[in-house]
Structures are given as C-alpha cells and as structure tokens.
## 1
Amino acid sequence: MALNGNDQVQQKVLVLDFGAQYGQLIARRVRDLRVYSEIVACDAPAAEIAAMKPSAIILSGGPASVYAEDAPKIDPEVLELGVPVLGFCYGHQIMAVTLGGEVAHSEVGEYGPAVISRSGASELLGDTPAEQTVWMSHRDAVDRVPEGFTVTSKTDVCPVASMECPERKLYSTQFHPEVRHTEHGQEILSNFLFNICGLEPTWTMDNLVEQKVAEIREKVGDDRVILALSGGVDSSVVAALGARAIGRQMTCVFVNHGLLRKGEPEQVEEVFTKQFDVDFIHVHAEERYAALLDGVTEPEEKRRIIGTQFWNEFFAVAKQLEEDGRPVKYLAQGTIYPDIIESGARKTGGKASTIKSHHNLIPFPEGVHFDLIEPLDHFFKDEVRALGLALGLPEHIVYRQPFPGPGLAIRIIGAVSPEKLEILKNADAIVREELDAYNQRLFEETGERNSEHSCWQYFAVLPDIRSVGVMGDERTYARPVILRAVESSDAMTADWAKLPYDVLARISGRIVAEVPGVNRVAYDITSKPPATIEWE
Ligand code: XMP
C-alpha cells in the first residue's frame, strides 16, 4: 500500500478512503493548498499508517451506515497515533462511534445545501461566519459526542454538524468541506492543515516529479519496462517521467495506425527521440490497418478491429524485444484517477461503487504477464498536465485535446479509404489551426485556459455522402465536411460551441478553398445528450 520513495516528501496528509465516490477529491483539495496528499484504504492497520509517517490524517465520507454489518471500520489505534485527524461525513460518524459517542438513525436526511450555526469557538471553523452554507449528504447523524469533545456547529436537522477535541487533535464535520458548494470549505481545510497541524504550503509539481522519479527507480531496479505511447497527455507524461527515472531501460512503443491527425506521428517521434532519451520504437502499421478496415462500415466493428490490432502490434514488439534474452518485467500505463473511479475504485480499498468498466483494460495474450506501473493513478487530468509542463513536455502535447483511440476511423462515416483519410486530415488540420487560434485569443483575454466560451474539443467529420455545388463556373459533386466543436468539462455532457460567425466563416472558406474534393461545410449544432461528441 505504501508508495515507495516517500522519504522525499516531508509533509504528507493521508486520506483514509471509506468508499466516497470522489475520495480523491479530498486529497486533491489538500494538494491544491500545496501540501502533498494521497489516499489509502480505510482499514489499513495503524502500524502501516504510522510507517507512512503522515503529518495529518483525513477520514473520508462513504455510502455505508456505521451500524451496518459490513460497514467499513477503522483501526481504533489510528486515532491514538498522536497525528491530527479530521473526519468528514462517514469519517465524522466513525470517529464518534469508535471513541464511544453515538450515531442515531434519522427519519429526515439532509441532502444538498444546509446552513450551519456555530456554537462557541472552534479551531477548525476558525474565523468563518457564525452561519454559513455547507454541503450535506447523510441520513444517520451523531447525536452524542465522545467524552472530551465539544459540538462546534449544528443545523436544524443535525445536532452535531461539527465537533472537536483540540487536546487530542481530533476534529470532524458531518458536512463535506471538499465540495465547492461548502462556502468556506477550503478555509476550513486550511485551518486544519496550517493552524492545527502546523504544516507549510511548500509542495510543488517539482517535488512531485522528484518523488515519482524516485518511486519508479526504486520499483524497477534493473528491470526492463515497456510503454504503449499514444502521443496523448497521459502516456506522454509517463514516458517523460520514465525517461528521467530509468532512461533507456524503458521502451516506448508508438503504434502508428495511420488514423492519427495530420502531423501527429511526426510530432510524437520528434519529442521522444530528440527531447527525451528513451528507447523509442515507431511501429508503422498503417498498411496492416488499412487492409483490416477495408470495406468495414459498422462503427463498433471498426473499434473492435482497431483495438484488437493495437494489442497484436504491441505484443509483437514486446516479444521481439525479449529475443535478446532480457525479459520485460513491467508495463507502464498512463492510467489516471478518473479512469480508476470509472472502473470501480480498484486501488482505493475497493469501496466505491462501480460506475462503468474501464475501456482500457488490457487483454494480455495467453502466457503473457507484466506487472503494471501506473505513476499517475492518484491524479486528475489538470494535475497530470501540470506535471507534464514541469517535466518539460511541449504545450501541444500537454494541452492536446481528447482524441479517441480508434482515431479518424470513427470520424469517417462508412468505410475508411486513403482518399477519405487524406480529405479528413486536411480539413481537420484547418479546424484545429483556426480554433487553436480562437482559444488562444480567449486565453489572452481572460487569462483562463478553459474559459466559459473556449472550445474543449473540435474536429472535422466526413460523412458518406456527396452534394452538388458550383465552383468557378463548374458544377461540382463533392463531399461535405462537418465541423464539430463542443464546450464541456468532462465529456459526459457537452454543448455545441457558440462560435462567432467570423470564425465559422473562416473555417468554412478555408476548407472549401484548400481541401480538394470538398464543396460544402456544415456545423453540428447538437448537444450531448442526445447526440454524442463523436459521430460513431
Ligand atoms: P462521445 O462520443 O461518447 O465521446 O461523446 C466522449 C469522449 O470520449 C472520446 N472517445 C473515445 N476515447 N476511445 C477513447 O480513448 C474511444 O473509443 C473513444 N470514443 C470516444 C471522445 O473523443 C470524447 O472526448
């Protein structure tokens, strides 16, 4: 459970995860305050936790009732380690019952915003107002605090909205300070970290680079590592970390299926051969993919063929590598925290309920086994981006927009052909050039990379139809290109971007003028739902 190489980190806050759907959010809020934090399973024995030398411990929320038979428990010794502890929601209730207080079932739950009234002084609530809005999500509630604790706030429904025992450095809240809707959540967390625990906001991305490099070195030793490098942010950050940690002990395998955007394979090769010193293998699989996809029109069939062939190509390289007699022990992966939460909290104690199975699970062939290295599995996308910048990755990789694994094949409706690919790549390059520039202008105006109106994902789609046009004096019967540009934060929902007419006009004018075979441009004005972002 303990991460290796932790001696690098002087101050560390451990979040004990009781199955909160977004347990990592707490660790993330702590890191936002520039204190390192990571998550561990709630039932870790006190000795194991002590060995990790935490400066503070936070107990997360969770879906269970403390009195349920299979309710997650805490080793009571954790509360006796002399390390300050802060509990939220389930963490608040488990602290109460573990120390002899009582939690009662309540008829009326509290879900959503609630107003707490403070009673008396509180180290935790500090200078926050006497009445303030917090975010609640509970049915059970503490109704008798353990000996030595005082109640520091309540709501109309909840008799103990927060409690503390400063002598033992134990604090807890029924509400969720980690959620943005809790008005003074970050201030409450700051009070805990800086005033109560005496920590300093000194942690930076450079510290994280050093820590991750040390962990990878310690884990890998002299062994060999292979990485499937797609050119996306996550795998590129792992490649850059690996380059710094273990250099040429790592082989980055870049499978080029010929379905990437214009210029992309060249950019990936440039960065990982010139800028980073790793063993880089560019697998030119374009022709094999073209043959496999020839005449295939059904979207799921395209995905299946592309996915299966990817691993065929990858494992063929892995096998070749081992022909020199040195086995490859590890497979490095750019799994990030949201991937894990989507696949059911596989590492965080397994308590969060499964949402959906992760699309990147690897089908190892018979007889093949690698141990996994996933250095980003505690982090959110924007933290991974910051890590990439700290490692010196270029902005075109760090801020690369999401791009589907099956690539342009699912943006060509119907069968993929070299002619259609050429059209789409050229049209898409214009879309990206114009909307990159548009986003850059917004960034300069607002100072925000993802301002309200910036486009989150934008690309061209090539439908399987032709239409009539007139160019010069000639009638044309050529292809339309569809522009798709959306605003979103997580791809779960999206709205079509309200682009200025002059931007739309420029894109349309350029595509028709510069891309042979195209005589019309349409704009997709559908949100998700009911549509999806991609067309296939
Ligand atoms: P949809 O089209 O479902 O897409 O609204 C949501 C987000 O996921 C991306 N996407 C994929 N990413 N493999 C991926 O790695 C895929 O097969 C895939 N399909 C869609 C899409 O670009 C969007 O950002």
## 2
Amino acid sequence: MNVRVYETKNSVATHFAAFLEEEIRGREEYHMALSGGSTPRILFEELSKTDRYKIDWGKVYLYWGDERCVPPNDEESNYKMTVDHLLRNVPIPEENIHRIMGENEPSVEALRYGILLERELPSGSGIPVFDMVILGMGEDGHTASIFPHEIHLWDSEQNCEVATHPESGQKRVTITGRLINNSKEVAFLVTGAGKADKVQSILGKSQGYRQYPAALVEPVSGKLSWYLDAEAASALQSLNSD
Ligand code: 6PG
C-alpha cells in the first residue's frame, strides 16, 4: 500500500493530477471512475489547467463510483459538480462520459449502470475492470456511497446497488466492492482533520477497523494508494507493516 502525505489539500490535488497525467500518457484508453466530495472537486479544478497538464482527453473514459438520486442539474449531483469543475473546461468527447442517471428510479438505474459497465469496460475474471477508481472517504468511514450501516452492500454480487444516506435518507446508486477490488488501481483522496481518526484506524488496522467500508478496499491484484493532506494524516502513528 502506498501512503502519500502532502501539506495541503491543494498539494494533494497537484501531485495526484501530475500522477494521472503520467498514467494517461502511456495508455491507449483510460477508464476512470470518479468520486464526489470536496477533495475531488479541487483535483478537477487542477486538471482543468490544460496549459499545465497535457492530457489527451480523447483517451479518457469517465464513470462515477456513486451518484445521488437527483437530476443532473441538481446542486447535489456529483455529475453536475464534475461538469462545473472539470468537464466544461477540458476537450473530452461527450461519448466518453458515462454518468449515472440520478433522475431514474434508483433500482432501475443501478441495473442499467451495472450493465453499461459490463459493456464499456474490459473484463477481468468476468468482472468489469477500471484502470483507476478515485475514492473519497467520509468521516464515518464510508466510501463511494457504501455507508457503515449498509456495509453488506460491499459484498453484493451486483456491480451496482442502491444505498441510503444514514442521515438524510437520500437514495444513491453506488458501485460495489467486487468492482472496486477488481480495479487496476484505486486512489483514496482524503483531506481534513475530520478524517484523521478513521485514517489512523484503517491504515493502522486498529480493533474493529473493518466495520468501515473504506477499510474493505483491498484491490485483488491492483494498486492501492492513499493521498492525504497533513490534517487527515495527523493521527497516523507507525503503520503496521503487512
Ligand atoms: C459523495 C462521495 C463521498 C465522498 C465522501 C468524502 O457522493 O459524497 O462519493 O463518498 O467521497 O463523502 O467527501 P469529502 O471529500 O467532501 O469529505
């Protein structure tokens, strides 16, 4: 596991953007699942600096790891956040963008998107394979939209499931553990002091750490990286080496 700590949210974004630029340069196609949240938003702003990052966006195919069940123009929409902070700034072909349709009935959309991923992504052992899955982590240890109170969704046999936000009750469509752990690479972008205790618990494998969905991200053969700012890493002691 690769843990990188940078001073600020912005330096997390600039380092990860530079990493992505390199990764994409070497590829014919790059199938990447995006996350919502405040850190990805800063990354998207960074990637929008097309004078700085020379990315052939024609090779990039975008998906989402989760979406709120709201219309695409809703302020809550992860897709809208991505349009506002990235998609309207970079020359990515419309046909390369595969959003989760939050306006659809959730269970119908979970099925539709799961089938789309089977169709659009290369397959590895019968499961769609992303080149990269970008994940955030909530203060409760959720990732994508798999929350601790519904941690059983992680082990679903389906590519996508319908989740429920524990406080708001908002329905979400999320990819599941079988896809995340079948990816070639997974990168957590986690910043802010509010995440520090969960980061320590998960990376330090403290007692009960596997109650947090973010702890279940263990790519079978892919690479796992954590990109942290100093605040999110502030509780890290020496990590148990595997
Ligand atoms: C979402 C995200 C979610 C997010 C975490 C962290 O739809 O909200 O997919 O999993 O990554 O809540 O969000 P922050 O980075 O804003 O703390």
